[in-house]
Design a protein that fits this description.
- The chain has helices at 24-41, 59-72, 91-98, 109-117, 123-126; strands spanning 3-9, 14-20, 45-52, 78-82, 102-106.
- It has 130 residues and is of the alpha/beta class.
- The protein has a 5-stranded mixed sheet with strand order 1-2-3-4-5, sandwiched between helices.
Amino acid sequence: MSIEVSFQRETNYLFVKARGEWTEENMREAMEAIRNEATKEGLTHLLLDLREIPRPDNEMTRYFTGEHCARILCPPFKSAVLAMPEVYNKFAESVAVGRGAIVKVFFEKEGALEWLLGGATSRRQATRVT
């Protein structure tokens, strides 16, 4: 896997920091590792810091990443994702949410934690337009 993933267990959530190349295979492997660690720790709330992941080489990679997210990090998991504004275009998030994932992308940690640990749990509440 050419995405490095590190984990930090917090009281109510798992903090995940990832860096590396955004390919379909890399993201699928990273999500599987995240799910395995969260399951091992008994946590369903995930704060994923992907700010060190550059944009993928094509839009299909974003599409398949959204599909993998919905399949691998589906409920009961709830994921707040930190991304860089210049990398984010809503596509992967929209695909994931449309297929049942509870995920929302943020640019700042404070807003991400507020949403993650607050009340928004339905798919409809999980969508965001930024």
